[in-house]
Amino acid sequence: MAKHESKTTTDRNTIKKWVEERDGKPALVKGTGDTGKGDGLLRINFPGGEEENLENIEWDKFFTIFEENNLKFLYQEETKDGGESRFFKFVNKNE
To answer: For the chain, what is the mean pLDDT?
Structure first.
């Protein structure tokens, strides 16, 4: 599989390593995680990002929400031209 092809994982170490290599932080969209465990819209907060509505969270909280919402992490290591990719999204494990 080429590095520019998308992959999926649920492995905590793989996700954390990919995010931290790109100076990202686990985050929630503000106002979406106030009602208890397992809620909130997950995001990755990258430096220079335009989203002011993100609240950085701890990895434990991130993975609790990730697992309770039955998600997997779809990501790309490199762009087609060989540059570092920040492409990712959260998808349902059943898709």
So the answer is: 89
Q: How many CB atoms lie within 10 A of CB 3?
A: 12
Residue 72 sits at φ, ψ, to 5 deg, of -130, 160
Report H helices in 4-86. 12-21, 59-68
| Residue 51: C-alpha distances to residues 32, 69, 71 (Å) | 14, 23, 22
Tell me the pLDDT tens digit for each residue of 32-75.
765 555 567 999 999 887 677 899 999 999 999 999 999 999 99
Determine the Cα–Cα distance for residues 2 and 30; give it in Å rounded to an integer: 36
Return the closest-CA partner of residue 73 out of 57, 92, 60: 92
Mean pLDDT, residues 18-37 taken together: 83
Domain residue ranges of the chain, discontinuous segments joined by +: 7-92
| Cβ(88)–Cβ(74) below 8 Å | yes
